[in-house]
Design goal:
The chain is mainly α and about 750 residues long. Among the domains are: about 40-220, no CATH class; about 225-255 and about 560-745, Up-down Bundle (Cytochrome C Oxidase, Chain A), CATH 1.20.210.10. Helices cover about 65% and strands about 5% of the residues. It is built from 26 helices and seven strands. It has helices spanning about 5-30, 50-65, 85-105, 115-130, 145-160, 165-170, 185-200, 225-255, 275-280, 280-305, 325-355, 360-390, 395-400, 410-435, 445-460, 470-505, 510-530, 545-555, 565-575, 585-610, 610-620, 620-650, 660-695, 695-700, 705, 710-740; strands at about 40, 45-50, 70, 75, 140, 310, 315. α12 (about 360-390) runs antiparallel to α14 (about 410-435) and α23 packs antiparallel against α26.
Length: about 750
């Protein structure tokens, strides 16, 4: 460890403490999940809904695309309703109407205000307290509630079927006709929706809040933010200010003025003779940009479905390429091409770390990994298509078709193959890096790089820790290990370490600066990022301690983003450090964009929805999509593009980039993303937020609200931003593909 001992001890302490918190509260998640009762019964003891019915409904929901068609407990797509909030509101309205007709002989809407308030209080008491789980693992439902359920269920059975009367509603929700052909499966689906609404409206044992911490906002059943919600929201702001203050003080007092490195007259990396495995990476570059173009085209189609729910400019394509399928491919493609870009950078660096040499069979391993990635991509896409076409038997859907969980939609079989591919990549990386530890040089920077790549190779595995019928709460716990920890955590550390290693080998930064930056950044990212995973689980069936930890630590995730302006300036200035560095302008500009969007997308828009009180009203609205687009592409997308462009420069050093194409491409990507947010996603999210706060989430996601003329116009306006973005993607991708397939001069 040497001179970096304190930094290593700090990083080890951060990882030990934060993962201990994540694990300890993980046990709490398992212990306090919303139960699935053995049965819901009538007052006379008649069984109405069984546990098997609910689990069968969960499978039916997955087979329709799950989170890619509407959302459950706030997680998923934004066009169709949140089925939890929607069912709950419809059932409550039915209960109030039935009761009003029985007792007053007229509809609930015709009652005076005082009578309405009295009925609402009775509904809240029945739903929140009288429907609790009993000691025999059953729930007794009143006759009125049973009638309400029987009134509501046909709506969903008809909606997911092929009845022509529901076509306008399906178009509004971007659903294809006959989304779920089997009528029995549709009936089971309604029981799953009912169970999620029951969990969201029933108080925990010995507690005055529901299993979902009173989410969603539903005044009819007195679902309003808890006191703890307000307290930890305020605390998160205090922790943010404290973290920013400490960071500024630490940066001011601990920063040492390092002597500027002597910039070499020639690019040191250009002197390295490419190894066979490095020469084989051209096809990785092509796969990355090809998937990138496919992803943005699918994104444009997904966005268009929000204005023409079943058509593409009058052409009905929903029966073959429904919204749920296109959105699935759009999100999966993002994960695939960004991950491939990172893997490409690692495989290029590995032989350099190994002294410019390939271990035996390294090229064969690189080629085999490429084939494996290709199989996973095509196989998972095909499985998704067959699943949503219902060509796969229902018992095989989870394994080979569609899991139904956003970002982890691919069938479990393809997920396992992807995990094998990541392990193969890690093996290829370790073959080179382990040898480097035998060299008589400072190995601290190498150690943090190796640690980060181990995280990238292994932390996709938690996505395998749940099954088809696992509780949604437990599934969310492990799903966010992948989406948050793997992508937002270890990818971030890997990128920082890889860039530090690259810039050091180029002679642009000193070894000490690169090492310190890697170690400090890793600690800063992980101290908030690891326990901050819980901010995704506030309302997914977890308890107050999870909310407290998630709110407190996720606020700290924003802290290191305060200094990203300095990082952006450093990356921008590197291109002017020496004449040879100008060749690296466009990879460096991508890294500058990363710093900007990290601050805006992950920082500003991330914190917008991080405090519990914000997310209580904003979860499941377009404000979440603002953060997702700005952070996923703005940060990790530009990182992946920067990596593959950097690799491309060294694969074909004599083939210059066309500055005109790259300028147009780079600025169109940034402008398209900014316009996408400013002209559509954010304004729609703001309007939805007002509706969610005043009326409830059900209204903010309802057909009547989402199809009003203003919001429809805003979605049409987004078309221009999408076209600009697609144009930028095509420019960058064309240049990268053209370069790697050009002949060496």
């Amino acid at each position: 460890m040497g001179q970096y001992k304190k930094l290593w001890y700090s990083l080890i302490a951060v990882l030990t403490i934060t993962f201990s918190i994540l694990g300890y509260l993980g046990v709490e998640v398992y212990r306090k999940i919303p139960p699935v009762p053995q049965a819901y019964v009538s007052a006379s003891g008649e069984t109405l809904i069984t546990k098997d019915d609910i689990l069968a409904g969960q499978s039916a929901w997955q087979s329709t695309g799950g989170m890619e068609l509407g959302s459950i407990l706030g997680h998923g797509a934004y066009q169709a309703p949140d089925w939890t909030a929607d069912w709950l509101h419809r059932e409550l309205e039915a209960w109030l109407d039935i009761t009003a007709q029985k007792e007053f002989g007229k509809p609930y809407a015709d009652l005076d205000t005082a009578t309405k308030s009295a009925l609402q209080a009775r509904a809240a008491e029945e739903y929140r307290n009288n429907s609790r789980l009993q000691s025999d693992d059953k729930v007794v439902l009143s006759d009125t509630r049973i009638q309400a359920i029987e009134q509501v269920a046909p709506y969903y059975i008809t909606l997911y079927g092929n009845d022509a009367s529901m076509i306008p509603t399906r178009e509004a929700f971007a659903m294809k006709n006959n989304t779920l052909p089997d009528e029995n499966a549709r009936r089971q689906l309604t029981r799953f929706f009912f169970w999620t609404a029951w969990a969201a409206s029933t108080n925990r044992p010995d507690h005055d809040a529901t299993y979902t911490n009173n989410w969603p906002h539903e005044p009819l059943v007195n679902n309003v933010p808890t006191t703890e919600n307000y307290m930890w929201s305020l605390a998160s702001i205090v922790f943010l200010l404290l973290g920013v203050g400490l960071l500024v003080w630490g940066f001011s007092f601990l920063k040492k003025n390092e002597p500027e490195p002597v910039i070499p007259q020639q690019d040191p990396l250009s002197k390295i003779v490419l190894t066979p495995s490095q020469k084989a990476l051209g096809k990785y570059v092509f796969l990355t940009v090809a998937l990138f173009v496919a992803q943005v085209l699918l994104g444009g189609l997904t966005a268009h479905y929000t204005v023409e729910g079943q058509q593409f400019y009058g052409i009905d394509i929903s029966q073959w390429l429904p919204y749920a399928l296109v959105r699935t491919w759009h999100i999966q493609s993002a994960i695939f091409w960004i991950a491939t870009g990172f893997l490409t950078a690692g495989l290029f660096l590995a032989p350099i770390i190994n002294g410019g040499q390939d271990p035996k069979y390294q090229r064969a391993g690189v080629n085999f990994l490429y084939i494996a990635l290709f199989i996973v991509v095509l196989g998972s896409y095909g499985g998704n298509f067959l699943a949503l076409s219902h060509a796969i038997p229902s018992n095989l859907n989870f394994w080979f078709g569609h899991q139904g969980y956003e970002y982890l939609d691919l069938g479990r079989f393809w997920q396992l193959l992807l995990m094998v591919g990541l392990l193969l990549w890690l093996f290829l990386m370790l073959r080179c890096t382990v040898q480097a530890f035998k060299q008589k040089t400072d190995k601290n920077m190498l150690a943090i790089f190796v640690a980060s790549m181990v995280g990238v190779g292994l932390f996709y595995a938690p996505g395998l820790f749940y099954g088809e019928h696992t509780s949604l709460t437990i599934m969310e716990y492990w799903r966010w290990w992948v989406v948050h920890l793997w992508v937002e955590g270890f990818f971030e550390v890997f990128a920082t370490a890889a860039l530090a290693f690259i810039f050091y080998n180029m002679g642009l930064v000193s070894q000490r600066s690169a090492t310190v930056a890697s170690l400090v950044s890793a600690s800063l990212f992980m101290v908030g990022g690891v326990p901050g995973t819980f901010h995704h689980l506030y309302f997914s069936g977890t308890t107050t301690p999870v909310m407290a930890v998630g709110a407190s630590f996720s606020a700290l995730e924003v802290v290191p983003l305060i200094l990203l302006g300095r990082e952006a300036y450093e990356h921008w200035s590197f291109q002017h450090a020496s004449p040879w560095a100008k060749r690296l302008r466009w990879p460096l500009m991508c890294f500058v964009a990363v710093a900007f969007w990290n601050m805006v997308g992950a920082g500003v828009f991330g914190f917008l929805i991080n405090p519990p009180i914000s997310l209580y009203y904003l979860q499941g609205l377009n404000t979440t999509a603002v953060h997702a687009h700005a952070a996923l592409f703005g940060v990790y997308g530009f990182l992946a593009l920067g990596f593959v462009l950097l690799v491309t420069r060294y694969l074909k050093p004599d083939t210059p980039f066309n500055d005109s194409i790259m300028t147009w491409g780079f600025w169109m990507l940034n402008a398209g993303l900014a316009l996408m947010i400013a002209t559509s996603l954010l304004p729609i999210g703001v309007f939805q937020a007002h509706a969610s706060i005043t009326e409830g989430l059900w209204y903010a996601r309802s057909e009547g609200f989402m199809q009003q003329e203003l919001l429809d116009t805003l979605r049409w306006v987004r078309t221009l931003a999408d076209l600009i973005f697609i144009g930028g993607a095509c420019c960058i991708s064309w240049q990268a593909a053209k370069t790697v397939f050009s002949r060496n001069r």
